[in-house]
Design brief:
There is one protein chain. With 434 residues, the chain is mainly α. It has a single domain, classed as Orthogonal Bundle (Hydantoin permease), CATH 1.10.4160. Helices cover 76% and strands 0% of the residues. Helix 4 crosses helix 17. The N and C termini lie far apart (44 Å). The structure holds tryptophan. The site of tryptophan has 16 residues, from helix 1, helix 2, helix 11 and helix 15.
Amino acid sequence: MENKRPVWTSKYAFIITAIGSAVGLGNIWRFPYIMGQNGGAIFLAVYLLLILTICFIPLINELYIGKLTKKECVGAYESINPKLKYIGMLNPITGILISAFYFIVGGWIIYYICQSLIHSQIKDYGEYFSALIQNPVYPSLLTLLFVFICVFFAARGVKKGIEAANKIFMPLFAVILIFLVIISLNLPNANLGLEYMFKPDFSKLNSHMVLAALGQAFFTLSIGMGALLTYGSYISEDKSLVKSVYTIILSDTTFALLAGIMIFPAVFSFNMQPNSGAGLVFVTLPKIFSQIPYGNYISLAFFVLLFCAAVTSGISIVEGPCASLTERFKISRIKACTILFLIISALAIPATLSFGILSSIKIFDKSIFDFLDYLTSNLMLPLNTLFLCLISGWYLKIKGQNFIKNKFLSFFFNIGLKYIVPAALISLIIVGLN
Ligand code: TRP
């Protein structure tokens, strides 16, 4: 079995795919609105501090366990200790649950791409968006389409599917992003948006925001559901992890910052509010596009950008469970992906309908969509990462010296893995439970 496992064709292929996984809706959709709700620049400062210091620890750890065991998630945990198999299973389950809400947003993006192509006149963007998400038909069909696209690339395999998709979508993403940043910076009063992003107001600093920043950092780096563990298992022996990890973190952070620089100057230039939450990208921005010359084309470019980001992350979300199914049940990727398509669709459709006809169904007072988001982002992702850090730090006694040359960094890795990151994760989980 081992020698049949795929490996990345090159270091570039691995890094661009890991960046593709990291850079997603978390950067373009979630990051700006969470920053908007948490006071702007001060949130950014805390976020940067966390992502550049402690986040490299769980990121290296997850990739390293994959590289070490050369197995999909469940097998990786099992090879450490057979009893850990059940904890390992939480990873693909988390992946499937995440995909059920993540891919719905993918469906909305496809709808907005079509809308930008049709050039339809819209009076009230808020109403337009609520009408879309409450509609029982279109979002469901488009979600299925989005699931199909991600599953399709995963089914084609690591080289022809996953690498190929990332090699197309990521460069396209970067080019469109830079183009949109230039347009946004040339809008009148763009500097107000930059001030909002880069001039911190320390009075807004609080513990809730620090944890929001930490949660966002883990989510955006794709830590906590075995996607990276699986990607790590395709790394061939000699590749150094530390450099790759910093390249991934720096690229992800740069893309999140560029997304902010694209969005906030436009928001301030048109006197809109930066704290409108999830609607920032689907309501506020389309309203702005409608007031800019060639707005339809800009809107098209923006939603294609969002699509590229979402697909490459979506593929990574599917790949964890896909690898687990193929390797454990010895079935083909096509079979595994068909099964995944059916399971994800069966969860995603009720979640889509929870904005409309199923809105009366509540789980712990939340709609199905909100519950899936809450359960995975606030509880399951941090829990999976916590388990993996404890297993590596305390059970396997992994030492940074084995793969980090810099003495200070490897010392910091050791205490981070055993104490700092678990403590941070436990705080996240406790706050998540409240
Ligand atoms: N990181 C992606 C984003 O920012 C989302 C994502 C992809 C993810 N794979 C993941 C999140 C695995 C957690 C775990 O949008």
